[in-house]
């Protein structure tokens, strides 16, 4: 393999990895507040992208995306208020199962609203054929958009959870809800806020990746599974780790693809997930982060 | 008072029931039950959607015109979600509970192969809308299919490659029934055509990006790429090839016959070459083409009713019903065995996919001439010329 080819594989890995990463970030927000995994996260992405695609017929792209993010944020809040908040004796397992139900509900609703066809947003810069050339290899400018947006989200979220009162209150809720309530934190609204935040970020992610992955009503589940894998891989709750883990998984898959049949790459990523769960249950970057969180 | 009211209501109900039964007796002969299994949702939704719409439209039209041999058709449509296991249970349900005469569909090859034996053992006619050759080879006496043969599509592609001087190709296929059987056909026929397949890879149907696998293809210095799938990968492959600078001709299967994939591919889709039935180019066919008038009529009916472009997949469902109706008419009965035999003897039936000539050994009835080679120019399908 010559250099351009190696770089090209790396770019392929980064392309897929950046998609995994941006999906994974959304999982972390709800986990940070409630300690549950929201399996409807993939559907938030698709709803966001679908809304933006529909709005883009009438308004310019940035406005369409903004509207889509706002509406999906509201949907996220409503989902929490209507479904999650009503549950008595909410154990983690029960809530997780409810999120699976919500994901199915949203998927069917999308099928009825937008039918079964594949759609996509236009490329943010250039078209489907434009590329950026680095070291003799090519990459779609949209991938740079995905990476850039991920970076901005992470740079916003990390200080938010660490240093702002609201962010710390949200984390406190996950840690010990009763104690948080005793400290005067309105835990119910913190959970609602986390759903809104992750739905909004999900919608933004869905819009950014739409030109690359295309958007179909039932794509949420498979995106969510990869995002979930990456969130675990990085260590749940840590957005920066999720991005690192996403890129890493993408690169590993690209490497496997370059050496073996393409079919093996899924197997490899699952094996890695299993190894991590066995040997480092808190994720690749997990331990240090959790220790740091406790110290704060 | 209450008791009396109850009595009155009771009498009314009985009277109503009698009326209904009398009316039912007075109506024509019982309807012919026909089942349909389509992937209306799931990965094959782009196939199943138009198939369901077409089937409903056509059956409505047939019934409005008095049905078949004086009997109306009752179409029972089931959504498989594009999943094999659903197709299997739906097929059993249609055969055992609904006791249908025939099943139209399923939409995908994987699903069809999963229920091929069930229909054969249940002695129920299966008219598949899926393309894989394994559906009718080996022949199962009750199993037919309406789309053109994979192998003929491959032969047409190789013919074009020869004229372009292409000898070394890379093949990528989706990891499902259609992709895998297509990959096999390509491998089987390549030698004969003097073409070397330098690399052959299968990708997941839910893949979010194909630059990785195409990088691998690029490393083999191929003269052309063939993609064989029916999923959204078809528009992705065109974009990704351009993105990584893999500037060789792209050939796709007849699964590309939906303008939606061209629209999604954007300008990258231009130049894609693929074999296809004549439905999509009906308006540019010469007037003496036997299919032209028929195709234009279907296109007009479908597009005016559903406000979306017609696709070849809907055409496969159209053909399936057409063949079944012709079989019933010829057999002058709804006996499964008689209808099956009648279908085997249908000759020269003009359908959307081509002109059908069935024999007991050929349960597809279409030849290589059913395909026209098309290419994409400025986002539209046009006839490919060397």
Explain briefly what this protein structure is:
The complex is a heterodimer of chains A (296) and B (386). With 296 residues, chain A is an all-alpha fold.
Structure description:
The complex is a heterodimer of chains A (296) and B (386). By secondary structure, chain A is mostly helical. Chain A has one domain (3-295). Chain A is built from twelve helices and two strands. Chain A has helices at residues 3-34, 41-55, 61-84, 92-114, 141-163, 165-175, 177-182, 187-213, 220-234, 239-259, 264-279, 286-295; strands at residues 132-134, 137-139. A two-stranded antiparallel ribbon of chain A has the order 1-2. The longest helix of chain A has 32 residues, at 3-34. The model of chain A is unreliable at 291-296 (pLDDT under 50). Chain B is an alpha/beta fold. Chain B has two domains: 32-148 and 291-370, Response regulator (Rossmann fold), CATH 3.40.50.2300; 152-276, 3-Layer(aba) Sandwich (Rossmann fold). Chain B is 45% helix and 18% strand. Chain B is built from twelve helices and 14 strands. In chain B, the strands form four sheets. In chain B, strands 2-1-3-4-5 form a five-stranded parallel beta sheet, with helices on both faces. A four-stranded parallel beta sheet of chain B has the order 7-6-8-9, with helices on both faces. In chain B, strand 13 (372-377) and strand 14 form a beta hairpin. The longest helix of chain B has 25 residues, at 2-26. The N and C termini of chain B lie far apart (88 Å). In chain B, 53% of the residues are buried. Mean pLDDT of chain B is 89; it is low at 22-26. Classes of the chains: A mainly alpha (296), B alpha/beta (386). The A-B interface holds A 1, 5, 8-9, 11-13, 15-16, 19, 111, 115-120, 127-129, 131, 133, 137-140, 209, 212-214, 216, 218-219, 222-223, 253-254, 257-258, 261-263, 265-266 and B 40-43, 45-46, 48-49, 175, 201-204, 206, 208-209, 211-213, 215-216, 218-219, 232, 235-236, 238-239, 242-245, 260-261, 264-268.
């Amino acid at each position: 393999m010559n250099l351009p080819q190696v770089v090209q594989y790396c770019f392929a890995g980064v392309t897929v990895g950046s998609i995994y990463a941006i999906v994974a970030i959304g999982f972390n927000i709800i986990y940070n507040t409630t300690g549950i995994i929201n399996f409807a996260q993939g559907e938030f992405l698709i709803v966001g992208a679908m809304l933006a695609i529909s709005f883009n017929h009438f308004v310019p792209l940035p406005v369409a995306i903004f509207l889509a993010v706002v509406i999906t944020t509201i949907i996220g809040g409503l989902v929490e208020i209507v479904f999650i908040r009503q549950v008595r004796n909410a154990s983690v397992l029960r809530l997780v199962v409810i999120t699976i139900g919500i994901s199915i509900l949203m998927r069917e609703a999308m099928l009825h609203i937008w039918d079964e066809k594949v759609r996509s947003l236009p490329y943010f810069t250039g078209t489907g054929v434009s590329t950026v050339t680095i070291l003799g290899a090519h990459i779609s400018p949209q991938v740079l958009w995905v990476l850039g947006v991920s970076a901005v989200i992470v740079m916003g979220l990390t200080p938010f959870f660490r240093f702002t009162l609201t962010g710390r209150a949200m984390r406190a809720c996950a840690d010990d809800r009763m104690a948080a309530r005793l400290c005067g934190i309105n835990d119910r609204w913190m959970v609602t806020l986390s759903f809104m935040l992750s739905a909004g970020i999900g919608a933004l992610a869905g819009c950014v990746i739409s030109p690359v992955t295309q958007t179909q009503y039932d794509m949420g589940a498979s995106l969510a599974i990869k995002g979930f894998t990456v969130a675990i891989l990085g260590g749940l709750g840590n957005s920066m780790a999720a991005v690192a883990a996403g890129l890493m998984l993408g690169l590993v898959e690209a490497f496997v693809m370059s050496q073996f049949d393409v079919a093996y790459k899924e197997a490899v990523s699952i094996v890695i997930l299993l190894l991590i769960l066995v040997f480092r249950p808190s994720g690749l970057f997990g331990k240090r982060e959790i220790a740091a969180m406790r110290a704060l | 008072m209450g008791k009396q009211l109850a009595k009155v209501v009771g009498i009314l109900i009985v009277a109503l029931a009698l009326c209904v039964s009398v009316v039912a007796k007075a109506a024509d002969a019982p309807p012919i039950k026909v089942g349909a299994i389509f992937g209306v949702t799931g990965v094959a939704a782009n196939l199943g959607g138009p198939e369901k719409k077409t089937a409903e439209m056509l059956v409505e039209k047939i019934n409005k015109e008095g049905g078949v041999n004086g009997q109306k058709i009752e179409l029972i449509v089931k959504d498989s979600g594009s999943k094999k296991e659903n197709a299997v249970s739906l097929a059993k349900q249609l055969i055992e509970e609904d006791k249908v005469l025939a099943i139209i569909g399923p939409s995908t090859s994987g699903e069809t192969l999963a229920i091929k034996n069930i229909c054969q053992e249940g002695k129920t006619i299966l008219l598949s809308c899926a393309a894989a050759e394994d559906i009718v080879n080996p022949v199962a006496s009750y199993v037919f299919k309406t789309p053109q043969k994979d192998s003929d599509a491959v032969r047409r592609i190789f013919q074009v490659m020869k004229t372009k001087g292409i000898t070394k190709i890379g093949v990528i296929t989706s990891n499902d029934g259609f992709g895998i059987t297509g990959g096999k056909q390509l491998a089987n026929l390549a030698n004969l055509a003097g073409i070397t397949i330098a690399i052959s890879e299968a990708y997941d149907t839910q893949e979010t990006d194909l630059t990785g696998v195409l990088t691998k293809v690029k490393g083999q210095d191929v003269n052309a790429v063939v993609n064989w799938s029916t999923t959204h990968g078809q528009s992705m492959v065109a974009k990704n090839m351009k993105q990584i600078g893999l500037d060789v001709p792209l050939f796709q299967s007849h699964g590309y016959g939906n303008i939606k994939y061209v629209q999604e591919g954007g300008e990258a889709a231009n130049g894609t070459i693929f074999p296809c039935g004549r439905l999509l180019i009906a308006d540019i066919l010469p007037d003496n083409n036997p299919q032209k008038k028929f195709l234009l009529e279907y296109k007009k009916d479908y597009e005016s009713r559903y406000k979306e472009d017609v696709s070849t997949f809907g055409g496969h469902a159209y053909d399936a019903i057409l063949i079944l109706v012709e079989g019933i008419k010829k057999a002058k009965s709804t006996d499964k065995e008689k209808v099956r035999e009648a279908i085997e003897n249908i000759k020269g039936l003009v359908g959307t996919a081509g002109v059908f000539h069935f024999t007991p050994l050929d349960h597809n009835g279409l030849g290589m001439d059913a395909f026209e080679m098309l290419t994409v120019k400025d986002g539209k399908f046009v006839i490919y010329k060397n």
